């Protein structure tokens, strides 16, 4: 080893072309990490490397850190394109793992299809296909040759002999349990145990990478041919960057599915789209250039549109986990059917095993669609400095008064002039808005005044809630509850200058509903399935004392809350939940749920009263023989006492119905009296049963849907008449 304080390194170990500064850094690192020097050499200050001394040269001067040029310490400035950023941070867009990525891909493509159909006033019809692709089939698609494992212990699914014996012993116990249940003729128990066992075996066999081709087809407006590459292959580009109630928010959706496809399979998107009255179908095969954030078109063509088809069809192949997220996907589509009962969703799963494939249709229940949301202007209290600059750059106003009047809510000409006068002498009503560009001091003054001044609240006319009628229909269609109530707050609420509307529905009963509170959350008419525990709806629902509304913990209670707004305050980019720390939302949600609970408590009280009366009257039947016998005995005694003429006259005067005479003539007997009383009680039971059915709101037998079509498909529809039991739509 070299002596302490010196390290001899042959220069021949470094390439001649290496710059002197780089050579110096390499020498320093070598000195620090040389095995002979676990600590700084003698005479060298801690934290400073020793100087390099060439072989044969004498060391002169004190040991001191070398002078390193600024160029060696300056880090290179790097940039990331939006596509790269979201690829590296895909979890913020809902692509946490293969299973959730499959779910989010389906969700984003479905919502794009529903938006497209609603935008043109068409009843949405969405067709979803998830096709399973095994690893072997995927390798064939990619042109890879099959290979056999040579070192089994190298793989994560390798089982040691001990692990294999333990698993086989556990499976043997499960098979024995199924056999015992079958011998005891416990059909339900045996089927449940067999299903659990087969699922565990199937999951073990299918463990590993699986691929899925997701295809979503809609009947929306289609996409312009020339805009398709940018709409699907350029991150942070889209049609939803306006102040308007929309399902999307960040312009990611389909682009993130494309990014995940590029990361997991490397396969591109396949898009077909056609607009109304277009004679061709736009067909593209494209992916995304991650580093430039631009679309990369592999194939582009225009196909003949002989059948006048309109809509879009997008197919993407990704890595996923169907087994883990199967229930989430079906739950999402089911809740979409609740919040959009005017839409039809056809779902089909194609498995490598034909017996495991299935299809399901969530049928349309109504053709009544909500009014489409409208684009609106900013409320003054919701404007920050960046929005000010954005509005100034896009405003068409030529004076400051017109800028305030035309580009903001709740400001008329008179109020605009008052605001400008309050801003100070630097502001003039007739000055051009462009004069404010670059004047941070003036913009700050305007923003401060907007925060402190009084403005009328937005009226919410730009919003499009689902409506109590559609919400009730969706709940009844999917859950089939015993009772349901809906409620909408009479006033529009406001949070940070953005209006929002809260609608709620509470149901009791239903075969598919679990006992306890089952919370279903919707924001801008999309279901929120994740992060339920931190959501404002869940926390508010759990804080309510349901016993005050005659609802117990054992009841099957469904709580549905729908919120619409121009700006939903999501927590995170994944649009997963609304924070419970927002007091305005918490208060509004609580009022809406309590409004439903009050309605239900009245229904439950009437139902309980009718049921109790029915039970009391029903018990009379078992006392009828004793009552009849007592009445006949009493009549016999009266007849004996009435043999005296005086008593006879008095009794005849009281017996206006002639009961004694009928009894004396044998027209009234114990058997006849019993039969009459039974008929009377049965009649009362029927009336009470009808009243009981009316109070519960549901008949004892399952209702059937009846659709009466107009005489002609061209028949114009008139207004609707809403009643408690039905809706009648008139024809022009």
What this model shows, in words?
A hairpin with a 2-residue loop joins strand 12 and strand 13. The chain has 21 helices and 16 strands. The protein has an 8-stranded mixed sheet. The longest helix is centred in the C-terminal third of the chain and has 36 residues. With about 725 residues, it is an alpha+beta fold. The chain is about 40% helix and about 15% strand.
Keywords summarizing the entry:
disordered N terminus; 16 strands; 40% helix; 6-stranded mixed beta sheet; alpha+beta; 8-stranded mixed beta sheet; 732 residues; 16% strand
What is the residue-averaged pLDDT? 80
Give the CA-CA distance, first to last residue.
104 Å
Number of helices: 21
Q: Major sheet, described briefly?
A: 8 strands, mixed
Low-confidence stretches: 1-14, 18-54, 57-64
- Radius of gyration over all CA atoms, rounded: 39 Å
Shape: extended
**Strand runs, count:** 16
Structural class determined from secondary elements: alpha+beta
Largest sheet, spatial ordering of strands = 5-4-3-6-2-1-7-8
**Helix amount, in percent?**
25-40%
The percent range for strand residues is 15-25%
């Amino acid at each position: 080893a070299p002596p302490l304080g010196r390290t001899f390194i042959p220069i021949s170990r470094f390439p001649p072309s290496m710059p002197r500064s780089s050579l110096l850094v390499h020498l320093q690192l070598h000195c620090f990490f040389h095995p002979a020097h676990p600590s700084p050499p003698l005479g060298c200050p801690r934290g400073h490397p020793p100087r390099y001394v060439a072989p044969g040269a004498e060391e002169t001067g004190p040991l001191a850190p070398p002078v390193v040029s600024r160029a060696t310490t300056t880090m290179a400035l790097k940039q990331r394109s939006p596509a790269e950023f979201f690829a590296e941070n895909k979890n913020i867009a809902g692509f946490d793992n293969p299973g959730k990525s499959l779910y989010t891909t389906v969700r984003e493509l479905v919502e794009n299809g529903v938006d497209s159909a609603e935008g043109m006033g068409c009843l949405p019809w969405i067709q979803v296909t998830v096709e399973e692709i095994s690893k072997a089939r995927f390798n064939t698609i990619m042109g890879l040759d099959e290979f056999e494992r040579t070192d089994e212990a190298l793989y994560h699914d390798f089982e040691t002999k001990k692990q294999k014996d333990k698993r086989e012993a556990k499976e043997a116990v499960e098979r024995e349990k199924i056999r015992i249940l079958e011998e005891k003729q416990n059909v339900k128990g045996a089927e449940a145990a067999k299903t659990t066992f087969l699922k565990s075996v199937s999951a073990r066999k299918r463990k590993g990478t699986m691929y899925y081709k997701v295809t979503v087809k809609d009947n929306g407006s289609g996409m312009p041919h020339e805009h398709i590459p940018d709409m699907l292959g350029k991150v942070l580009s889209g049609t939803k960057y306006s102040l308007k109630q929309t399902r999307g928010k960040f312009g990611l959706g389909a682009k993130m599915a494309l990014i995940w496809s590029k990361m997991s399979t490397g396969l591109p998107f396949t898009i077909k789209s056609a607009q109304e009255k277009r004679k061709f179908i736009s067909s593209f095969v494209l992916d995304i250039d991650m580093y430039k954030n631009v679309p990369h078109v592999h194939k582009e063509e225009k196909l003949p549109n002989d059948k006048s088809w309109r809509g879009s069809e997008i197919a993407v192949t990704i890595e996923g986990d169907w087994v883990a997220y199967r229930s989430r996907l079906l739950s999402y589509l089911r809740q979409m059917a609740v919040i959009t009962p005017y839409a039809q969703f056809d779902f089909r799963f194609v498995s490598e095993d034909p017996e495991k494939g299935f299809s399901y249709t969530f049928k349309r229940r109504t053709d009544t669609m909500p009014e489409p949301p409208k684009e609106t202007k900013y409320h003054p209290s919701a404007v920050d400095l960046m929005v000010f600059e954005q509005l100034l750059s896009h405003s068409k106003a030529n004076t400051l008064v017109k800028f305030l009047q035309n580009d903001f809510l709740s400001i008329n000409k008179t109020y605009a002039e008052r605001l400008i006068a309050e801003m100070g002498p630097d502001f003039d009503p007739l000055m051009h808005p462009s004069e404010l560009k670059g004047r941070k001091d003036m913009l700050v003054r305007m923003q401060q005044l907007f925060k402190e001044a009084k403005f009328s609240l937005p009226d919410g006319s730009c919003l499009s809630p689902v409506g109590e009628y559609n919400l009730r229909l969706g709940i009844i269609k999917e859950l089939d509850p015993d009772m349901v109530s809906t409620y909408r707050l009479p006033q529009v609420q406001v949070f940070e200058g953005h209006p929002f509307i809260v609608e709620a529905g509470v149901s009791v009963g239903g075969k598919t509903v679990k006992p306890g509170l089952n919370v279903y959350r919707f924001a801008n008419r999309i279901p929120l399935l994740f992060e339920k525990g931190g959501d404002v709806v869940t926390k508010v629902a759990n804080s309510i004392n349901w016993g005050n509304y005659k609802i117990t913990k054992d009841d099957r209670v469904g709580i549905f809350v729908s919120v619409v707004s121009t700006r939903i305050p999501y927590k995170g980019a994944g649009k997963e939940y609304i924070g419970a720390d927002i007091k305005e939302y918490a208060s509004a949600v609580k009022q809406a749920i309590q409004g439903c609970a009050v309605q239900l408590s009245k229904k439950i009280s009437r139902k309980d009263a009718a049921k109790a009366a029915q039970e009391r009257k029903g018990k009379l039947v078992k006392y009828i023989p004793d009552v009849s016998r007592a009445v006949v005995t009493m009549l016999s005694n009266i007849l004996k006492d009435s043999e005296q003429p005086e008593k006879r006259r008095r009794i005849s005067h009281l017996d206006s119905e002639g009961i004694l005479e009928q009894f004396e003539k044998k027209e009234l007997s114990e058997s006849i009296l019993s039969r009459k009383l039974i008929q009377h009680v049965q009649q009362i039971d029927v009336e009470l049963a009808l009243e009981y059915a009316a109070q519960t709101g549901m008949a004892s037998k399952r209702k059937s849907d009846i659709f009466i079509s107009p005489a002609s498909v061209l028949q114009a529809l008139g207004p609707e008449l809403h009643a408690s039991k039905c809706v009648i739509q008139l024809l022009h």
